[in-house]
Please model this.
Amino acid sequence: MKKAPLNSENQQIVIKKNITKKSTRSPLFYVGDKYKLMPQLSELFPKNINNYFDVFGGGGSASINTKAKHFYLNDIDTKVMELHHFLMEKSTNIDQFIFDMRFLIQEYGLSHSELGPNIEIEKLKKEFKKTYFAKYNKTGYLKLRSDYNNNKERTELLYLLLIYGFNHMIRFNRKGDFNLPVGNVDWNANVSSALTEYASWVNKNEITLTSLDFEDMIKRNFENNDFIYLDPPYLIRFSEYNKLWNEEHEQRLYQVLDELDNKGVKWGVSNMVNDHQGNHNYILENWMKKYQVYQIKSNYISHFDNTIKDTYDVYITNV
Ligand SMILES: C[S@@+](CC[C@H](N)C(=O)[O-])C[C@H]1O[C@@H](n2cnc3c(N)ncnc32)[C@H](O)[C@@H]1O
Model:
């Protein structure tokens, strides 16, 4: 492990070597998920975790790739947690669920590349290099979206919208209707294998789901060897859920972490100090001086020009 100064205060930051271990992807294919970084992060987590609190859980990648006695998975987004509830229920017989979804995909006339090549899509690929699935699926997707918006109890339709929708995202308008356009994606072999791996994790573990604000989630008594992992929205990055986050939240989070540290509760938090557009998180930089900081290598796709940029996340911990 190397040490090098990173910030203006010359705080010593530990740079982790690249780790090439395999990591499991959540079937929610969540924007900003941590699955690629989990091999680096989990190495820095304490060994023998008792209760594990994934406070900003999103798709759950930071839980699926961790070993603990009991998992507490939380996200303020109730729709995300509804999808976890739904997929956990289906995990008792995930093969049946995958099989049933085939009929739904067929009913809406959507492409299903896991089943093999589709001549019409192959033709569209020549003409519409980046939008062939979207062209093929648009009509079926709009019918699916309208059916879901007319009956929001049908979580299986919401899951299908996530699989066929823009960037696998979840977005609702003020009226509470799902409003993302069709994406250039479909149900391929990765979807079924992510569901199978998720089900295997669900069936082997004790998991409690909540949908609370982070502060309420960690207002509790902790036991020995409990560990809290926090992956908040990054103040200096754009994403749908960043609308929920501002400087006040950021400061409140660090205050709560200081209080937990005083009580001897172990935690680790992911974040980013600067990005390629020159944005800088001064609140984070000032606060993290008190703790151990690790540089975590990551690749992000820029929202502005669709290129992949090499950037560094930080992982700050009191372990
Ligand atoms: C960076 S994402 C987490 C990604 C997740 N670790 C994964 O691997 O999929 C941040 C998450 O924080 C959630 N969030 C935003 N504000 C929150 C709050 N006040 N309390 C709890 N969760 C919050 C968002 O809904 C979003 O899912």
